[in-house]
Amino acid sequence: MLCLLLAEPGWGRVFIQWTEPSIPPAKTLGVRDVVVAWESHPPGLMKTARSEDYHVFAEVSAEQAKAAAEAATTDGLAGIIVKASGASPDAESDDHLIRTLRSAYPGLSVLLLEPGGKQPQLRGTTVVSRNGFLAVSSPTRQPWIDFNVALIRYERVYRPAEAPLLDYPWELTGALEDRLGPRTEDYALAVAEAGTFHADLILNLHKHLQQELIEGSAEGLKAWKQIRSYIDFYSGNSGAKAGEVANTGVVTGDYDSAYEEMNLLGRHNIPFRVVTPRELSAGRLAGLDLMVIFSPMDAVATRAVSDFAAKGGIAVLTGQQGQFPWRAEEPIQKNENAVTYRFGKGKVVELSTPIVNPDAFAEDIRRLLPAQQQLIGLWNALTVVSAVYRQMGKPGVAVDLANFAEEPLRVQVRLKGDFSVARYGTPERGCCVTLQLSHAQGFTQFVVPDLRIGGTVHLEATP
Amino acid sequence: MPLFRALLLPVVLVFFLPKAPPVSSQLVYKKQYAMGTVYQILAYSTTPLRASQAIDAAFRRIVELDHVMSNFDPGSDLSRLDRSARFRAARAPPDLFDVIGDSLAYSRLSNGKFDITIAPVVDVWKAAQREGTPPSSGQIDRLRPCVGYQKIQLIPPDRIEFHSPCMRLDLGAIGKGYAVDRAVEVLRADGVRNALVNAGGSTFFGLGAPPGQTGWLVHLRDPSGRLDPTVTLHDNSVSTSEQWRASLIEAGAFGHIIDPVTDRPVKSTFAVSVVAPTGTQTDGLSLTLFMMGPDAGKLLVKKKLPHTAAIWVWPSGKFEMVSAGPKIQIGKGR
Q1: Taking the model in full, what pTM does it have?
Q2: Are A294 and A355 in contact (CB under 8 A)?
Q3: Domain limits at A87?
Q4: Could you tell me the residue range of the domain that residue B290 belongs to?
């Protein structure tokens, strides 16, 4: 049965970033939260936005935060959004600043913006920049996906009191895209990605779309209606779901050193959570069947890993130096990169070389987990990423799916656990159609008929 | 920069910068997911909106071909052919007939090293990979009646018969190149003169050239990371084949390319890139020359493949090249 429950703060909030001097009324857009740049907003925009019934947030740097908070209280702003200086657990100063501001201005909403977010999208091998392009040939592999799962899951652990808040520029290529901005599907995918991984999002509306909305053009309003259906779907979903389900742990205290591996684990739909080195040393590993350890291990961590493996866990060590008890055993497998030991009821895999191919590594992790321990499997889903959540207050889970191909896919899903009812909802069609289920060997299987960009399957556990 | 991203985009800081294009010529860029990969088209045009529409039309053609050649879609023309052509001539749409005909040419050229009938054996190896143990010789033997390009009979103008009770075709080694060629036809017909079509990195076609340049510079796959071979495409194509390493952990793990002659995964560690006039040719030839290796491959290019060039690059930095026309350069752009 699915096993791990993590507490997390609220999520699913989408803030609209606005840069044009005027703004349509909040009731026209159907959203209330608007973000404007503290330094560079057009004169009068904050006042206009407030008069049009928006909750206005000012986006500020850490240096500007105090002055902005002081001014915000007199300007009637709903809050300020402080750009964090880095995605490191050592970014104590950001956390301290946020705590100080919240304490000093209790009526003001003070939020922290994670740097390092990127536009979710499928990538090809030709990289286009403003000045030229780079084309690199390669054998065909699964399409590369840019997404924010690593950042979100890392921040969730190292800043547990904050819902991760994302913001990123659009990657626009060529004069036509520069002028017209992202496609409606790009906006929808941005909202779906944040919703799937339970992050808040500042959605940068391109100047062209802002102008269309100000003018009330039919084309702009049509696009916005589609985007809003995604905003409504994911914000409406947020109350029903609780902690994310994961049975793979990534032990790291350094985001950059484990970034690509986390990214590829997410890409291969291996449910993982970040584990701090302190949690590892304290043996707080409940629910994990497999651990990948990036942070350096001391004697206490070594004991925790030994206990984990002895009880049946699989530990994968990357670049670790030291004397380890499992080395007293004969390796059960060995190649130029890795040595595998049986230890107690479990296994320890020591990788001696850097992980030069995280894609192959993620596939290895999936193969290391016995079939009975693979929480979710997807088929016909090369461009789909997923996350599984406990339902709030009732037995059952919700599976969020995001399709980066942005075209309807018929996705087969195999989920660990015995579920009796599955209801599938999408932003386009709302909630819900009932899906047919089949059961085999402790798993529930179903087909999602038409996953376009985002959707959620709610499953009720068999009593 | 994380290592994997560094490997993927190793030259982003030193990449080719075309001279500033004339003001009247603008870059239009679009991408589309099809055939399990991302197609990208870049075009320079004085009428960007028209070029954008032409690119959309080219993508529609690729998606249409996906519905023809997909072996995942049970409703595709290929799947229908697989079900209906066993010991009975069945009609095939022109695209399917053409691409199967092209495939058979590469099978003959390579004495069966390139073979679109290998799908059942590939499937057995894929399943074996999930289990972590190779298939038994008995399993492979049972599939022999299903495999062999000689068992495909083309009956012009539009019928095909399989002389096998269990044959299934897989056009994965040539379909993307064929789709690239058809997309280029659409672009040309719609007035686009300068464009680069990229099918997931494995096949490129350079139509015309970017403004101020002689062609489209493509960095070729280099497992050594030291050579940086490049080719400048101008109305021709390049494709790359390589056996991917399947596992960092398992001893004796096998990759995705199976040798139809031995029915076993190929162990070659080199990457092969082939330059030729069309995407169909380079896609088909890259696997053909990968399977044949440099000795036989170079001979084939010299004797039978005009306007073709190929390079084999090993992880050690060793490389071998042959050319019957196009130039592959080492170290340009680094």
Answers
A1: 0.90
A2: no
A3: 14-240
A4: 24-68+174-330
